[in-house]
């Protein structure tokens, strides 16, 4: 027997049509994961091509950073508008249009040979990529039955977390064997295949379609243009401060001070506006849900630590252990591979083991790996690094899946696009904050440690004088005169001092990452979904 489903004509009247035959959930998953994975990879793939881009475009490293900054700012601005766009146009249409925008932006990025155009098309790419993650997350939640939500989020997690991890490795291979435009061109054929699959296999559930149509009617009558303007201004300026603050010495720069002030005022005005709007473009009332708020905040801290550690480790291995860029990338791969193996397992046991226990275990396990990294020395081997990273991959797997699943467990199906947009926004912002803070602290801790050590160094010290004399004699034996040998010996000792100071700085930051993560452990208590989760109402003033 064929059942009928409600739909709506152009005038908004209800009609009926035969209900579609359900599509295999794995086909839906594969269809929408391609786009999300490409968007996640593109957030980091450009980093390894910086030397090639500077040479090809004739610009400085400081100027080329806008290629990444423009992409991230555009991505962040679109994420919280996912629910707004989904109500107006439908989830499937939003995903397809944004994917098409991403594909077009990728093709144009590969064609251009000037920096302004490359930045412009990277922004176009970012506008397309911004809605891909939240929309996939919402579609997967609506496609998989409740008992398989953990597995759905495991699949989503592999795309979101592994994309940035594999991006530099993939980008390095492409740049070394082909040319830099191919880091963009590679998105085109994969994106087209994904676009065709989405058009064929992805369909919105009828209950979601009906509920979102009703909400869209109210939204069109009360368009929140001022909220959207404040959102773009607030998030754009905030992300600019996070991306450029460290390069401009933060609040020592008048430019950063002004832009930070604009960001604070705009974001405060945005929250006030959205909480009082008849139909808000960004539904901040979702944060009244304790489960959603707790899961989202822990997820933001998790991503901050993930991105911070991913930023620190390659620097540590290259600056202090003498690894090449390729060797550092290979050393990071085991963490990604362990996540690839463990994530499906965590997804399988989601309904059998309390998510709160899994999340708590993941937090403690990450703190343990941070403690181990705090014991790294200048004699640490690649094997020592890899062993810790494998354990850390298990920790992040235990965190990501339960957090993304529990955070959305109390959200009704028709409000998932709003919730996933906010969840993705805080995760992305957490990553930016983590990199910005730890990059700043790395330099400051190193300077402070060097100053502390210098206060204990004196040529009048017998041990220091003997070390200086020994190096000087060695240099004189290689042909240097007395004066040149003395200067070279002083420089060598200063270089060793700087390396030790940098080593101490890395150790402090590794310890700090573990301590900060342990601070969110109390929030795990709130990760328990109430039985009446689906009864939550949308924030709309009638």
Strand order in the sheet with the most strands: 1-2
How many β-strand stretches?
A: 2
Strand content: under 5%
Count of alpha/pi helices: 20
Mean pLDDT, to the nearest integer, reads 77
Strand-and-helix sequence, N→C?
Answer: EEHHHHHHHHHHHHHHHHHHHH
Helix content: over 70%
N→C terminal distance: 39 Å
Question: What class do helices, strands and sheet pairing give?
Answer: mainly alpha
**Main β-sheet, in a few words?**
2 strands, antiparallel
The parts where pLDDT drops under 50 for at least 5 residues are 1-18, 532-542
- The Rg value, from CA coordinates, equals 26 Å
The dominant shape is globular
Q: Could you describe the 3D structure shown?
A:
It is a single chain. With 542 residues, the protein is mainly alpha-helical. It is 74% helix and 2% strand. The protein has a two-stranded antiparallel sheet with strand order 1-2. α1 crosses α8. It is globular, with a radius of gyration of 26 Å. The two termini are 39 Å apart. The relative contact order is 0.11.
How are the elements arranged and paired?
Elements: E1 4-8, E2 14-18, H1 25-42, H2 50-57, H3 61-78, H4 82-89, H5 91-111, H6 115-129, H7 132-143, H8 149-177, H9 182-185, H10 187-201, H11 206-221, H12 225-244, H13 254-276, H14 290-319, H15 325-349, H16 355-373, H17 382-407, H18 416-454, H19 462-477, H20 482-518
Antiparallel strand pairs: 1-2
Helix pairs in contact: 1-6, 1-7, 1-8, 1-10, 3-6, 3-12, 4-5, 4-11, 4-18, 5-6, 5-7, 5-10, 7-8, 7-18, 8-15, 8-17, 12-13, 14-15, 14-17, 14-18, 14-20, 15-17, 16-17, 16-20, 18-20, 19-20
């Amino acid at each position: 027997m064929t059942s009928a489903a409600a739909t709506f004509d152009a005038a908004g009247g209800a009609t009926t049509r035969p209900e579609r035959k359900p599509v295999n959930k794995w086909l839906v998953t594969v269809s929408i994961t391609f786009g999300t994975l490409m968007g996640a990879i593109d957030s980091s793939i450009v980093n390894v091509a910086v030397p090639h881009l500077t040479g090809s475009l004739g610009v400085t490293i400081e100027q080329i950073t806008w290629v990444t900054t423009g992409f991230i700012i555009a991505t962040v601005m679109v994420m919280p508008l996912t629910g707004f766009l989904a109500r107006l146009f439908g989830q499937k249409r939003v995903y397809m249009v944004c994917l098409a925008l991403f594909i077009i932006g990728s093709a144009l990025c590969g064609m251009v040979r000037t920096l302004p155009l490359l930045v412009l098309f990277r922004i176009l790419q970012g506008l397309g990529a911004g809605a891909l993650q939240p929309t996939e997350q919402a579609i997967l939640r609506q496609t998989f039955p409740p008992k398989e939500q953990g597995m759905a989020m495991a699949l989503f997690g592999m795309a979101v977390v592994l994309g940035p991890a594999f991006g530099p490795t993939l980008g390095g291979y492409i740049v070394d064997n082909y040319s830099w435009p191919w880091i963009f061109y590679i998105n085109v054929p994969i994106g087209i295949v994904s676009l065709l699959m989405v058009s064929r296999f992805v369909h919105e559930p009828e209950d979601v379609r009906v509920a979102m149509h009703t909400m869209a009617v109210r939204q069109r009558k009360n368009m929140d243009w001022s909220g959207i303007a404040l959102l773009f201004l607030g998030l754009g300026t905030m992300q600019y401060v996070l991306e450029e603050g460290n390069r401009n010495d933060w609040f020592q720069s008048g430019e950063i001070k002004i832009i930070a002030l604009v960001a604070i005022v705009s974001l405060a005005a945005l929250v006030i506006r959205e909480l009082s709007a008849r139909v808000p473009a960004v539904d901040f009332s979702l944060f009244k849900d304790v489960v959603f708020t707790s899961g989202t905040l822990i997820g933001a801290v998790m991503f901050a630590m993930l991105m911070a550690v991913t930023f620190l480790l390659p620097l540590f291995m290259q600056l202090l252990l003498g690894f090449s860029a390729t060797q550092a990338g290979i050393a990071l791969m085991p963490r990604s591979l362990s996540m690839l193996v463990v994530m499906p397992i965590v997804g399988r046991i989601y309904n059998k083991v309390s998510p709160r226990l899994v999340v708590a275990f993941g937090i403690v396990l990450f703190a343990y790996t941070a403690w181990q990294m705090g014991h790294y020395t200048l004699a640490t081997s690649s094997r020592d690094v890899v062993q810790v990273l494998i354990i850390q991959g298990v920790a992040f797997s235990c965190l990501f899946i339960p957090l993304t699943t529990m955070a959305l467990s109390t959200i009704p199906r028709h409000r998932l696009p709003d919730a996933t947009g906010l969840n993705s926004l805080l995760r992305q912002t957490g990553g930016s904050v983590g990199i910005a803070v730890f990059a700043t602290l790395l330099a400051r801790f190193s300077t402070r440690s060097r100053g502390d050590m210098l206060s204990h160094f004196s040529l009048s010290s017998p041990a220091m004088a003997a070390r200086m004399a020994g190096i000087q004699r060695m240099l004189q034996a290689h042909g240097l005169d007395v004066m040149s040998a003395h200067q070279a010996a002083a420089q060598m000792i200063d270089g060793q001092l700087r390396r030790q100071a940098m080593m101490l700085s890395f150790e402090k930051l590794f310890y700090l990452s573990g301590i900060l993560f342990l601070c969110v452990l109390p929030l795990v208590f709130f990760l328990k979904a109430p039985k009446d989760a689906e009864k939550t109402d949308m924030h709309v003033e009638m």
